[in-house]
Model the fold of this input.
Amino acid sequence: MRIFAISIIALWMLVGGVAHLVTPEFFFQIVPYMFPKLAVVYASGVIEIAIGAAILVPKLRAVAGLCFAILCVGFLPLHVWDFFRPDPVFEVPVAASIRILVQFGLIGLGLFLWRTDSRPNTTEPARVEPSAE
Done:
């Protein structure tokens, strides 16, 4: 399950982040009108690439998993908003519902990595330092 979570998150973030930078116009429709679309799309793309790369670094994986989950929680209101807006990005109700469910699954994967990778490695024997008496 761990390798699956690492692979999904890394792929999702790296491909998605690059897509935000290469074709930002595609993502404009999900950005609420009160925000500067290009800046929001570029910023989220850079953040996604950073998280996707960090997931691949074992020492950063736990915090990257948590950051991924937090980012997905932050994006969740946009997907819920999309469900109710007059011009949804995802077709309502099927595609929009699936997208919201996928978001919850992604949040779960990020939290899973955070929990599993933040535990100390129990396969190595504990080192006992000599006392300086």
